[in-house]
Design goal:
- By secondary structure, the chain is an alpha+beta fold.
- The protein is 19% helix and 44% strand.
- The protein is built from 4 helices and 10 strands.
- The longest helix is centred in the N-terminal third of the chain and has 18 residues.
- The radius of gyration is 17 Å and the shape is globular.
Length: 227
């Protein structure tokens, strides 16, 4: 298969990005290899998993929260990019604290690869203060991957917000690449770098239509101040 041009990064840029010491300098696209499932079933399964993930988060249940996340997941937030269950748990700790704010969300769309091993959900989230008052709202996008035990787990996640035009000057440093076993859905997420400084994160998802790829998702966070 010829990969989509948008998901390719020049080797020289990847090598310079390796100096950051962040994991996954030049990841290979992963093909989960799950069996083909009935049409429509993966979307329903992903919607149900998304709602259960939300319920676990709203219940401030750290163990249940972690059970919905793939071991090598990449989550892109306003604060930065977290890789792996432990790092994501640290980022989300304020939301999982018993007396912390309550985050809930619900999907309003789902799109699955024909092979059923990758499923994309999108929807809206709301945040309430510990007293129950509204504290924020927005949209999210999550890519679910079928794991060896047959369950779908979140492997990529980001706020469903477009990157500003000025972010085009940053180097995209992939941390995780995925492609469905039927080679119809491709995704990548990683860091936005200004030299060696992290200035945000990105997530891209594309779907193949015939011999061409169509960009479905291009979102991320942009923090030009960096760290």
């Amino acid at each position: 298969m010829t990969p989509s041009p948008r998901l390719l990064v020049p080797l020289t840029l990847l090598l310079s990005a390796c100096a950051t010491g962040r994991p996954g300098a030049a990841p290979q696209a992963q093909r989960p290899g799950a069996p083909v499932v009935a049409r429509g079933q993966p979307e329903a399964e992903a919607r149900a998993a998304d709602l259960a993930f939300s319920a676990a988060t709203a219940a401030h249940d750290e163990r249940a929260f972690a059970s919905f996340i793939a071991p090598d997941a990449v989550f892109v937030s306003r604060e930065g990019v977290a890789v792996g269950v432990a790092a994501i748990g640290i980022d989300w700790a304020p939301l999982l604290a018993p007396e912390g704010p309550t985050l809930t969300w619900a999907p309003d769309s789902a799109l699955a690869a024909g092979s059923g091993d990758l499923v994309l959900t999108r929807g809206g989230w709301t945040l309430a203060s510990p007293a129950g008052a509204p504290a924020g709202a927005g949209r999210y996008v999550t890519l679910w991957r079928r794991e060896p035990d047959g369950k779908l787990r979140a492997v990529l996640d980001a706020l469903d917000a477009p990157l500003p035009l000025e972010s085009a000057s940053a180097t995209r440093h992939p941390l995780r690449r995925l492609i469905s076993s039927d080679e119809r859905v491709s995704a990548v997420a990683g860091l936005l770098l200004d030299g060696l400084k992290e200035v945000g994160g990105f997530m891209l998802v594309e779907v193949r239509e015939g011999d061409t790829w169509r960009l479905l998702v291009e979102v991320g966070s942009w923090r030009p101040g960096g760290r």
